[in-house]
Amino acid sequence: MLEPTSALTHLECSFCGQSQSAEEQATICPACGKVLLARYDLAQAAQTMTKTAVAGRAWDLWRYAEILPVRDPAHRLRLGEGGTPLLHADRLGAELGLSRLLVKDEGQNPTGSFKARGLCAAVSRAKELGAPALAIPSAGNAGSAMAAYAARAGIPATVIMPRDAPAAMVAESRVYGATVRLIDGLINDAGREVREGTAEHGWWDISTLKEPYRAEGKKTMGIELVEQLGWRVPDAIVYPTGGGTGIVGMWKAFAELEEMGLIGPKRPRMVVVQAAGCAPIAKAFADGERHAPLWEGAETDAPGLRVPVAIGDYLILDAVRASGGTALTVTDAELMAGMHRIARTEGMFVSPEAGAAVVAAERLRASGFFGADDEVLLFATGAGLKHVDLIVDVRE
Asked: How far apart are CA 162 and CA 181, in angstroms?
């Protein structure tokens, strides 16, 4: 059976609308410095990416190849990404007052987090375009995912992480053969070092939303969720948000699926949850702003939420507002309690970021933002086994 082909046509700036070729290395819009998005001939894609055709394909990310950016199937890297379970959380839902609570367990991806999706797509496309070397700033999971896919592709990789990144993720990146540099500071400081090193070392920068293809891999979370629900969307998605690529990607996916005739116009309410010690998007939402200034003194035990500035801030905030969603914060104590709670009630050992989603769902049910019968989807973005250093004995 022939593998489906990509309907990629060009890149388009999400802010000023300028178009450019997708056939060479791309970072951010050369005109305004904002996020570039991949665009497709969706009419062409719809001819082969039908519900019936997709049902017969392998359960991995490339199931949706028509609206993914890699043209030659030989460059589509595979480590088993995608196809993560959508689980009913009845016991947790009963405690939270939500009768239709679902959890998408992204910790079952390669390298133990949702980052595998974005880095699979980005590294595959970089390989197809001939990248000589890759570099990424990371709080942990993105770095180890990039290192894994770079190893799969045979491309040299450099990962720059804050010195306090989880030890498991530092070790994982190194075992895949990446050069790992630990720095004083946060992920934005690591990003500056990557940018400064691109000219000297010939790296292709794979930073969040500073290249157009990580969002394409992340959007498969939304496509896959829709398919698992019988080609419909839930009432709400609660998403632990750092750089926000997942929200940007899923929102884009829903628009593409509607244009292809695979879903209708309904959208889930998109809910951003951030840590109280690093909440630029939640603050901008509360302030009615479209852009989120740098959060000074960012601090949280959830490394994926320790992102003090996001280049895609306007895209995240636009999606939240257009969907009738909201943004809120939780404390570190609360998110750790949420992590323990979902483990105790459902047998899911999730990351602290996912613990934040549990707390957010409970708070939104208590406030009446969610009704008891709303179908609410929590994204468990990573596996708790990568955060065992945070676990203390809480038995009485």
From this structure: 8
User: Tens digits of per-residue pLDDT, 64-89?
Assistant: 999 999 999 999 999 999 999 999 99
Q: Mention the CATH class of domain 86-112+214-390.
A: alpha beta
Contact indicator for 310, 34 with CB cutoff of 8 Å: no
Give the C-alpha distances (Å, rounded to integers) separating 341 from 105, 135, 140, 196, 325: 15, 36, 24, 43, 24
160 vs 288: CA distance, rounded Å: 34
What is the rounded CA–CA span in Å between residue 189 and residue 199?
A: 17
How many other β-carbons are positioned within 10 Å of the β-carbon of residue 167?
12
Between helices 167-175 and 141-153, what is the axis angle to 10°?
Answer: 10
From the CB of residue 60, how many other CB atoms can be counted at a distance below 10 Å?
A: 18
Listing DSSP states for 32-84 in one string gives: T---EEEEE-HHHHHHH--HHHHHTS-SSGGGGGGGSS--SGGG---SS-S--
Give which of 148, 149, 160 is closest to 191, Cα–Cα.
160
CA atoms within 13 A on the CB side of 44: 12
Q: What is the pTM of this model?
A: 0.95
Yes or no: say if 200 and 229 are a contact pair by the CB < 8 Å rule. no
Q: How far apart are CA 50 and CA 48, in angstroms?
A: 6
- DSSP class of residue 14? T
Give phi and psi for 278, each to the nearest 5.
-160, 90
CA distance linking residue 253 with residue 379, whole number of Å: 16
- Is 176 buried (19+), middle (13-18) or exposed (0-12) by CB count in 10 A? buried
The alpha carbon torsion through 354, 355, 359, 362 (nearest 10 deg) reads 70
Reported as a single tens digit per residue, the pLDDT across 122-161 is 999 999 999 999 999 998 899 999 999 999 999 999 999 9
For the chain, the distance separating the N- and C-terminal CA atoms, rounded to the nearest angstrom, is 58
